[in-house]
Amino acid sequence: MKKLSILSGALALVLLAACSSGGPSGASPQVQSPETATAALSASPSEPPQWSSQVFADTYYAEDGTMVMDVRYTLPMVENTDTCPAGEAINAWYKDYGENCLAEAASGAAEAEGDYDSSKSTQLPFTPTSHEMSYEVLLDNDQVISISREWYIGTGAAYPTVFRLGDNFDPQTGIKLAAADFFTDAETVKDRVVEAFLTCAEIMEGSFTKEQVEEVYQAEQFCLTQEGYVFWIQGNTLPALHSPVSVTIPYSALKDVSMYAAQ
Question: What residue spans define the domains of the chain?
């Protein structure tokens, strides 16, 4: 069986603390000169992001030329950084993330090669490790940019490992947002999300308890859509649950503890 120690380090990258910034309080209003005002009007207007992708990929081989690991992380990229104020920061965040994923993969390639060498000595079949990451822009408005990612990891086991990941950004600054930027009461949010999970078919079929769901609840892993907040439980965090299970919480259900104004 392949070891998956590579996952813990790479998965931790998605839990980076959100940055925050603010201007000085009590600042006096600034009066523009006619020249400054004219320059501002002629400047390129702020526009929503135009999306494409940046790809981080590599393939690793054993000494005899056999492929032991193949990775491909496809991540968002904003094309119009000249007119989208958040573009450069978002691109930089995903560039750093992709490079860190490649570094983690490189450190795990030696382990995959070790598995290959063991398979030769034991005459057991060998399956190369495969990583594939994709994304989808779920919401893009003047309040938030919300992106969902899926990370597929195949190791030859009966079930692949699949992670669902969520990234939320400020559309003006490109700062990555955290749960505290959306919710005023984390415990109330947790209680309502957990209760929603308990009504999901997969959770009910597994007879999972409220305590079990609370233990695997991830406060920072969520996205926003037109319909509401989407939370999920990762696969393999509960017995026989091999894929992520998601639940959509309507904005109205969290209106009293949410700072996001649904459009």
Answer: 49-177, 179-258
Residue 199 DSSP class:
T
pLDDT digits (tens, 9 = 90+) for 176-225: 999 999 999 999 999 999 999 999 999 999 999 999 999 999 999 999 99
Judged by DSSP in three states, 109 sits in helix
**Rounded CA separation 1/156 (Å):** 8
Distance of CA 221 to the CA centre of its chain: 7
Entry pTM: 0.80
- For 176, the 3-state DSSP assignment is strand
Q: For residue range 72-129, list pLDDT tens digits in order.
A: 999 999 999 999 999 999 999 999 999 999 999 998 898 999 989 999 899 899 999 9
Domain 49-177 homologous superfamily, CATH:
Fervidobacterium nodosum Rt17-B1 like (3.30.565.40)
CA distance 224 to 48: 17
Query: What is the amino acid identity at position 217?
Result: Y
Contacts of 213 (CB under 8 A, 6+ apart): 194, 197, 198, 203, 233, 238
How far apart are the C-alpha atoms of 142 and 229, rounded to whole Å? Answer: 17
CATH of domain 179-258: 3.90.640
| Of 150, 134, 143, nearest in space to 226 by CA | 143
